[in-house]
Amino acid sequence: AQPFNPGNFLVHAVSNIICSVVFGDRFDYEDKKFVTLIELLDENNKLQNSIHTQLYNFFPAVMEHLPGPHQEMIKNTEKVDQFTLEIIAEHQETLDPTCPRDFIDAFLNKMEQEKGNGHSEFTIETLSRTTLDLFLAGTGTTSITLRHGLLILQKYPEIV
Question: Residue 68's closest CA among 84, 85, 55, 81?
Fold first, then answer.
C-alpha cells in the first residue's frame, strides 16, 4: 500500500461545500475555475506568513508601493474578488426574491430591503468580501481539522 496525503481532497471537498452554501452550486473537482480558486486561496494562505504581508497589514498605504510577496497576495485577492463578482452578477440576473437559492440571493434580497438606507452595510463590495471571508475562514480550518481527525483515527484504530 502506498501512502497518500488526503490534504488536497479535503480542501476541495470543504471548498465545494462552502460553494454550495454561498453560490448554490458545487463544482466538479477538475473544473478549471474551481481549481484556480483553490490554488489562489492556498497561495495567499502561504503568503500570509511573510514579513512583507504582515507589514502590509499595518502600513497598507506605504507597502502597496513597495515590491514583495504581498503584491502577489493583492493580485490573487483581486482575482478571487473578480471570480466572486462574476457569480454575483449572474445571481442578480436570475434572482427570484421569493425563492432564495443560497447566501448570495439572501444577501441580495437584504440589499433590496435596505435600498433607501444610506448607511446600509449591504453592498456588493460587502457581499464579495464576506464571501471571501467565508472561504478563507472555512476552507483551511475545516480541512486541517478533518486531516487531524484522520490522523487520530489512524493512530488509534480501536476508536473506529
Answer: 55
Per-residue pLDDT at 82 exceeds 80 = yes
Q: Give this prediction's pTM.
A: 0.80
Exposed, middle or buried by CB within 10 Å (0-12, 13-18, 19+), for 64? Answer: exposed
- Encode pLDDT of 19-33 as tens digits: 999 998 889 988 998
Cα separation of the two ends of the chain: 20
Tell me how far CA of residue 155 lies from CA of 11, 34, 41, 46, 62, in angstroms.
22, 33, 30, 28, 49
- Amino acid present at 16: N
- Mean of the per-residue pLDDT values of the chain: 89
Collapsing DSSP states into helix, strand and coil, what is residue 138?
helix
Measured CA angle at 148 (ends 144, 150), to 5 deg: 115
Distance (Å, whole) CA 131 – CA 124: 11
138: which residues sit within 8 A by CB, 6+ positions away? 14, 18
